[in-house]
From TrEMBL, chain A:
Bilayer-crossing regions: 49-73, 94-116, 128-150, 157-176, 209-227
Keyword Transmembrane helix in annotation: yes
Keywords: Membrane, Transmembrane, Transmembrane helix
Name the UniProt record assigns to this protein: ABC transporter permease
A Pfam family this chain is assigned to: ABC2_membrane_4
Organism: Actinomadura parmotrematis
TrEMBL record, chain B:
Gene3D superfamilies attached to this UniProt entry: P-loop containing nucleotide triphosphate hydrolases (3.40.50.300)
ATP-binding as UniProt keyword: yes
Entry keyword set: ATP-binding, Nucleotide-binding, Transport
Domain of life: Bacteria
Start and end residues of each ABC transporter domain: 4-230
Species this protein is from: Actinomadura parmotrematis
Family membership: Belongs to the ABC transporter superfamily.
Tagged with keyword Plastid: no
Pfam family, one: ABC_tran
Protein name: ABC transporter ATP-binding protein
Length: 238, 303
């Protein structure tokens, strides 16, 4: 970890126009939860549906995509990464710092809002709020590691990530059960499922399978990002 | 005293060869890397800076490989050609951050020194996004100097600078070379290289075309017929003096002015004002008409 890289990355992330998205998405979730509360529709069933359907399926992957690709992608595109890479700093320190910043952002803008929404809608019932928050944190870390690696590998990381989230996880996940078991969202949900006794949450993958997969994919993403950054070639301007 | 050495270095992108079998040694002092746009100068600098793996051959700094070796950056500073830096930071914040990334014991003092060297103290509190092109160039320069490196690589450092900033940067580069540093800068402008570099490496179409003392290269480049367009208050009188003097091989009277083919570039540019004065002719315009770098280089390649 490197404090200077973290400082620059935080300032770059929160100073950009896309920072609005960081605030807008959790706000949407909060408004949704408040609305349910006002309409008196916040039973355990709806709470689980909102947290899963919006929190896990939309907010978490999108936030991880914005944060994961944003911490390093634009810097590589603009060539600013040269200022970091021309320093006697091991490349794994660069990647792990970027990853930590992205995870911190996902925690603040996705995990905490999911926790607060859960508390607002379900209170302390069935440990629903902390269970969803824990699942969000676990899934968020894995999503972020994958998207950071994508951003180092490809200039189209945001598009590829979006396709994965929208097409693979959401669309195919609804129709093909096979695709559902190979999805970070489902692995995250199995963490939640294991932590709450309610039957409103049902994951298609068991925790003993999901947990190692979450860890392995996150580690693979981080390692891949380091390896690719070590050999990052800056395309000559001419 | 540090030395960057390239041995049989080639770099290709797919079927396109950007750099072809280049061997050169860059030692202390100022070396100019001269070549037309697209000759492979940036590719060479990127390989020397550890940002591009040579497809074949080796690039070393004092015997150590540069590729996959971040430790070389303790002794190497790089000023990239691309303009973008962290626009949201102030100049001072940027340089302090660079000093911290280098792990310097006193980052603030190092940043002050580097900013002072490029004379950016007056604007160090402003964000980089508000800087002019020349100011950005200088703050980039400060970022490469902050750790006092033995080797400095500059990719087209004078691009976008006004004449005063250009002179000032030249002085700075000279002063640093006098301290025993190894400095390489690329340029496609003959005049810049000529004024600054003690040693010149010429790259044309990815190949190492010439290497040596600047006088040598300058002679190669300037000892050829030069074509000038001269407009004056009395073209005929001037033409007569030029022919009489022998500095011109031929003089053509055209409606646009005189087309003069000079034998010797240096002698002609030195003598023309004197001749004009003696003949009581006022010069309106003197412009080299075949000074495009391409023609200079094609002349050099043809030799």
């Amino acid at each position: 970890m490197n404090a200077t890289i973290a400082m620059i990355t935080f300032r770059a992330m929160l100073g950009r126009r896309r920072a609005v998205l960081l605030f807008a998405l959790p706000l949407l979730l909060a408004v949704l939860a408040a609305l349910m509360r006002v309409l008196d529709a916040s039973d355990l069933d709806t709470a689980a549906a909102v947290l899963h359907g919006f929190g896990f399926a939309v907010l978490l992957p999108l936030l991880a995509l914005i944060a994961g690709t944003g911490v390093i992608g634009p810097e590589i595109d603009d060539g600013q990464i040269m200022y970091v890479l021309t320093k006697p700093i091991p490349r794994h320190t660069v990647v792990l710092t970027k990853l930590a910043v992205a995870i911190a952002l996902v925690t603040v803008f996705a995990v905490v809002p999911i926790l607060l929404t859960g508390l607002l809608m379900a209170g302390g019932t069935a440990q629903l709020a902390p269970a969803f928050a824990a699942g969000a944190l676990a899934g968020g870390i894995t999503y972020t590691a994958v998207f950071v690696a994508l951003a180092v590998i490809s200039r189209n990381a945001a598009v590829i990530g979006l396709l994965y989230v929208l097409v693979w996880e959401s669309l195919l996940g609804n129709f093909a059960p096979g695709a559902r078991s190979a999805s970070i969202q489902q692995w995250a949900l199995s963490v939640t499922d294991a932590l709450t006794p309610t039957s409103y949450v049902h994951a298609s993958v068991d925790l003993p399978v999901a947990a190692p997969l979450l860890v392995a994919v996150a580690a693979a993403g981080a390692v891949l990002a380091v390896v690719r950054l070590r050999s990052l070639s800056v395309v000559a301007a001419e | 005293m540090s030395e960057v050495r390239l041995e049989g270095v080639s770099r290709w992108y797919g079927d396109v060869v950007a750099v072809n079998g280049v061997s050169m040694t860059i030692g202390p002092g100022v070396t100019g890397l001269l070549g037309p746009n697209g000759a492979g100068k940036s590719t060479l600098i990127h390989m020397m800076g550890g940002f591009l793996q040579p497809s074949s051959g080796t690039v070393t700094l004092d015997g150590e490989p540069i590729w996959h070796n971040p430790q070389v950056y303790r002794r190497l500073g790089l000023v990239p050609e691309r303009e973008s830096s962290y626009d949201f930071l102030t100049g001072r914040q940027f340089i302090v951050a660079m000093a911290k990334l280098h792990g310097l014991p006193d980052p603030d003092a190092a940043a002050r020194r580097a900013i002072g060297l490029v004379e950016m103290d007056y604007a160090a509190g402003r964000t980089i996004g508000q800087y002019s092109k020349g100011m950005k160039q200088r703050i980039k320069m400060a970022s490469a100097l902050v750790h006092d490196p033995a080797v400095l690589l500059l990719d087209e450092p004078f691009n976008g600078m006004d004449p005063r900033q250009r002179l000032q940067l030249m002085d700075l580069i000279r002063a640093m070379a006098d301290e025993g540093r190894t400095i390489l800068f690329s340029s496609h402008i003959l005049e810049e290289v000529e004024r600054l570099a003690g040693h010149i490496e010429v790259v044309i179409a990815g190949r190492h075309a010439a290497s040596g003392d600047f006088r040598e290269i300058r002679r190669l480049m300037t000892d050829r017929p030069h074509l000038f367009l001269v407009r004056s208050s009395d073209d005929r009188a001037l033409a007569a003096s030029l022919v009489a003097d022998g500095t011109a091989r031929s003089v053509r009277l055209t409606p646009q002015g005189l087309e003069v083919e000079a034998v010797d570039f240096a002698r002609f540019t030195l003598l023309l004002p004197r001749l004009a004065r003696d003949a009581a002719v006022r010069l309106w315009e003197v412009s080299p008409s075949d000074e495009s770098l391409e023609s200079v280089f094609s002349y050099l390649v043809a030799r």
